[in-house]
Amino acid sequence: MPAGREEVGVGEHPVIALHGWFGSGRAWRPLQPHLDGTRFRYVFPDYRGYGGRVGEPGAHTLEEAAGDVLALADELGFDRFSLVGHSMGGAVMQRVLADAPDRVRAMVGVSPVPAGGVPFDEQGWALFSGAAADAGNRRAIIDFTTGNRLTGVWLDAMVRHSLDSSDPRAFGDYLSAWAKADFQAEIDGRELPVKVIVGEHDPALGESTMRETFQRSYPGCELDVLRNAGHYAIDETPVALATSIETFLAKAE
Prior knowledge:
The model has no long low-confidence stretch (mean pLDDT 97). β4 (81-86), α2 and β5 (104-110) form a beta-alpha-beta unit. α1 (62-76) crosses α2 and α4 (135-145) crosses α5 (152-164). It is built from eleven helices and seven strands. The two termini are 27 Å apart. By secondary structure, the protein is α/β, with parallel strands linked by helices. The protein has a single domain (5-250), classed as Rossmann fold. InterPro entries: AB_hydrolase_1, AB_hydrolase_fold, AB_hydrolase_sf. This is Alpha/beta hydrolase. Keywords: Hydrolase.
């Protein structure tokens, strides 16, 4: 397997899954045993500065990340493909749609960042912007976005993965990229199958935010609220998440 991505499955429906700010391509591993590899072919790439691409030069923008997704699709021979995006990956997948709308079959956002970014107050921005240099900030963010309800052992493991799998400069650059995203007008009204999946315990990118953003932008956008999950359904409820994703993607074939 080339550095910078993982793959699962040999199916005829290609799916590119895009990780979040604290993740990497490896962050999808809790989900992978539950995916249908006979029907779908999943690819889990790293962004520049993450995972197998730590240290690779880049501007760390949504446009660059989307361009890398399209280059990967070309490399793999994917003329048309579906996209799954977690958190920051939700903004990247929409940037791919804006840049190459004819190539995207369907999109599934998992607690996805909207194309209009995420507003922060002064205290929130200090917490998030300080996370590039402070592991404690990373832990506090993960704890908050999962409802302050999960074991510290898991929180610590998530922080370790984030520190080990991302370059601090890239991590800081991507915060501005997704939080200050502003390309809503480029995707409003796009007609394609879209689903958003959120956890009931996600205080920021939960049900109400999806109704005000994705469901207003995409006609017919479906919404699924997962019980017993917060922002990290990949870890918290992987079987339910895999079921929700694939039930939807199967309808887009």
